[in-house]
Structures are given as C-alpha cells and as structure tokens.
Specification:
The complex is a heterodimer of chains A (132) and B (387). Chain A is an alpha/beta fold. Helix content of chain A is 46%, strand content 17%. Chain A has 5 helices and 5 strands; from the N terminus they run H-E-H-E-H-E-H-E-E-H. Chain A has a 5-stranded mixed β-sheet, sandwiched between helices. Chain A is globular and about 30 Å long. In chain A, 40% of the residues are buried. Chain B has a 4-stranded antiparallel β-sheet, with no helix packed on it. In chain B, strands 2-3-4-5 form a 4-stranded antiparallel β-sheet, with no helix packed on it. Chain B is globular. Chain B starts with a helix and ends in a 6-residue tail after the last strand. Classes of the chains: A alpha/beta (132), B mainly beta (387). Chains A and B meet through helix 2 and helix 3 of A and helix 1 of B.
Chain lengths: 132, 387
Amino acid sequence: MIRILVLSLLALSACTNSSTELRLYSKKIGFNSDKATLLVSLENCSYCFGEYQDTVEELDKLKFNVVIISSQKKKASLFASPDDNSVFIDNEKIAIKLGLIESLPIIILPSGERLEIFSPEQLLNYAETYVP
Amino acid sequence: MKKILRHLSFVGIVFLFASCENKNATLSEGILRYKVGESTLSLDDSTAIDFMRISYAEEEGNEYLLHQNEFKKSIQVFDLESGLVAHEILYPFEQPLGIKVVQGITAISLDSIFIFMPLSIRGSILINRKGEILNRYMPTKEEDLEKSLINHVSFGAMPTLFDGQNLRFIQLPTFEVSNPSNINDTYKFEMLYNLESNEIEEAEESGFPEFYQNKIWPSQDISVSRIMDLQGRIVYSWRFLDSLIVVENGIVEKMLAKSNFKKQDMSPFQLMPNKVQDMEKLIQFTKYYGIYYDEYRDLFYRTVQHPGVFDGDAIPKEMDASRKFSVLILDHQFNKLNEIVFPGGIYNIYRAFVGKRGFYLPKNNVMNPELVEDTLSIDIFDFTAHD
C-alpha cells in the first residue's frame, strides 16, 4: 500500500513538473496551455516535414496548438503557417532546451501528460482518443 | 517498429547536425589560398536552406546541384554558375506509385535520377528530367516485415551509389547498439541491390571492424562513410578508425589516413552510458566524418571533426556545429598530401560535396551569423591550386 502511495506521489510530482514546464513554455511561445499541444521539431527529425505535414494540416486547430521547433523560420512556415492563434514557431528551440521534445513529435495534454508520436496514423488516433 | 523509428529519428539527429561558432571568423591565409570560387544559390519562398538531400551532376560542361524540395515535391536543378534554378522536376508523390517521403536522391545525369524512400529499397524510382518514371524497383518482398526494412541513409557522406550494376546503400542498425554483443561482424552496413537480378545482398567487407567489436561506443557515431573511385575501389571510412578500409576486386586492405589533429583514440564506454555521457563523448573527441572522391583530380578527401566544447545545457546540434574540422587530402594511393583546418560555425560539413572545381562547402551552418534564408553560399576549394 505504501509502495502504491509512493508511486502515486512520484507520478503526481512528474506530472506537476511537466505541467509547470508546459505553462512556462506556453508563456514564452504565447499559446494557450489549456489546449492540447503538438510539438514537431524540424531540427532533429529528418523525415518529420514530409511525414507529418499533411496530417498536421488535418488537425482541428480549435482543439490543438501546433508548435514547430526550427531555427529556420521559412522552413517552419512552409510546414504550417503560423497564425499566433493556434500555430506557432519556436525559433529559439526552447522546447529542446526545456527537454520537452527530443526528436519525434509529442502531444502534451493540458495535464502535462506527454504522448510520443511514431506515425501520422498514430497522431490522428491520439487526436481522436485524447482530444475528442 | 518503435525502435526502428527511434533509430530513424536518430539518423535525423546525426545528419541534420550543421556547424557553427566564431562570429567574426575570417578565413585564414592557409584556407584562402585554396579557395577558387563561390556559388550563391537564390532560394525562393518555398525553398528551405538546409539542403539535406542533394546530388551533383554535370552536363555539357555546366555544373548543377540537384536539391529535393520536400515542400514542392520537386527536384530543383540549381545551376552552380548562375545560382538560379535551371529546371524544376516534379516527381510523382501520390501513393502507390509515387514517393511521399524522400530519403535521398542520386543523380547519374539530369535524365537518370534515383529517388529513394525511407526504410526500404522496394519502391525506389528512376525518373528523367521531365519527371517521368523510367523504372520502379521492386526487389522480392520478405515475409517478415522487420527483415524487409532497410534503414538506409542515402544522403550526406553516406550516399547511395550506382556501380554500373548495383545500387549500393549504406544502412544503419536498428538493433540496440549499446549492447556490446551486438557489435560484431554479423551485421553489414552496406547493401547491394542488383538492378538486373532484382536481388539484394550484403557487402561482406562492410561489417564492424575488429577495433569496434564487443565494445560500447557513442551510439550516434555508429556509422560508416563510403565512396567508390574510378577504378571501382570501395573505400570505407569509420568514425574512430585511422585507417581506411579499401576493397579492390574482393581484396581488403587497410590504408593509414590519420589526421594530424587526432591526439588520442576514442575509448569505448565501460558501462552503458546515459544520454549525457553519450553526448559528451560524441562532442569531445576527434573523429572522422566523410570520405569523398574527386574524380577530376583522382584525390580522396577525408573530413575530420575536431574536439568541441561540451555543455550539458546546450543544444547538441549547436555544440557539434561549433567545432572546427579539417580536410585530409590523399592521393590515389592514399598518401597524405595535406590537411587543411577550417573554423567552426561557418561551413556545414554534413553537406560537403565534390565537383569539377574541387571540394564544395555550403555555408548553411546553423550558427553561421551571416546565414540568411533566401541565399545559400557555397565556397569552392581546389586543394591542388598551388601544386
């Protein structure tokens, strides 16, 4: 029982840290952290542009923020047009510095829970399941 | 499958690395004496500057750089003299016959351009300058999906080459490379696809060298660069090996091609490293990157990455981009002729290529303070300029 309690506390604290980081990040980038947020890094994922561009276009931006991490503004804008409402560019790669993303795309839910994405199909599936 | 995707993204991490530093760097006399030209490519609003998938071609004395534009789904043929797009080839991208995501391109000429998809040789196509499919390659399908996956690179210093009969792919492991028992001679890094017989086979000589075997190495440096010369010799350059492995008519020879700037050998890890330890070693040690063949001068160039400064809070790509590098110049018998040191933070060592005028170094280093996204500058060096 104690073990379960300790594990629950650890899980809770990890979640709290993630949501704190998310809030910090959302302030810097300017998005609403009450919405689910998709992070896509074009910095260290060589195939993400071609693989996810169409699928990201399909996402319902009323439910999702999309943040594109890239030092190249032009490339990021070609991937998805920034609108300062639901699509943003992280030009300074803050998400990488904060450890929010390594290479594969990530969905971060408002709770701080992180879902790593392995394929466009999985992205759509997660979008349906977690952000109905 | 997840493991494979992680490895695939790791390929991205390694090969998307650009270079950086030295905000006011000016090239030293030692470098400038070999600089013979500059090419400035004009990039339109739909062309990003990273130029990851490129291939050089010559036609009627003119030089071209082919660039796969993933936004336009086209091959842009840049004239290296004018810097303008001479042709734009729209390739088929609609499934099932087209290629949605491109892993790499290899131009034999402007009318024979191979386009490869990730993780598979099956489905590769050959197009001409009109974008028409000349051939589509369908080697026999393995029943086991994982066995049929070939995690080939096909860009940078690991291009796919055509040797007249085979397409030669360099692949990267999808198994756990931090397990030393996996680092053995069973796995081969080069795969040959015979266009006539439609069969795929391994290049026997492309396994881990003895030096690597049964040890733990920085995971992102588990790769090999390879080139072929006009005699048909295959030359493998391993990151931590001073010698090149040269294969000629099935005979394997080691040829010493050590950098003057390599002061100590890379040592393996004693225990499985964490990510920070892995990155620290990746940045701090001297290692070799690419091997290139200059058919115009019958020379080999071997690029060497000098030790960088590791900072646990910095972005790995930027630390890597900041390091100096050198180019080792070797004659056709692999005698060392010279080694030229370049500053970090200007050139993108991962996008270097060879052409008629010598060794071409693009300046799309992510840390280059002069970088602007609508122009790609390429400096051209002829290391025989003062012979």
